[in-house]
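Narrative of activities, Objective 1.

The group set out to show that a structural description can be obtained from nothing but a protein's sequence at a throughput compatible with the screening campaign. Below is one input-output pair from the validation batch, recorded exactly as produced.
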Amino acid sequence: MDPVSIGLLAALAGGVGGELGRQSWAGLSALVRRPFSRGAGEQAPAVSTGEVELVRLSEEPNDQGRAQELSTALALRAAVDTDFRAGLAAWQQQAAALQDQGGVVLNSITGGTLHGPVLQGKDFSGSFTFGTPPAPPASPTSEGGPAGTTP
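Output recorded for this entry:
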């Protein structure tokens, strides 16, 4: 079974996708909250149900680390719980259909200072041209120029 995309999990936790996204997140939540399936006399496996990770991600939907934790918990549970694996596979198919319909777009720019235009979105076509001035020059560290040089 393929792992659940951390981008998809973060996007759905953050409310992306409108009503379809909310329904998809609710479906995953209901699936995670189901008890482990097991035979008579078997104990529940020693892996997370995924509920703690689901709640943590819903509290901080932009935290990629929390999305990764949920994806890992889902994969581990699917490995030991055949009913959950089947339910998760069905949920993934529905969530993929949501993505294919353009319901989920996750754009992110992080870290550093960036210079220049940014185009964010999904399914662009045609050509784009940007007329942007070059990045500003680095400021000298001393009056004579960069450190370690003499005028």
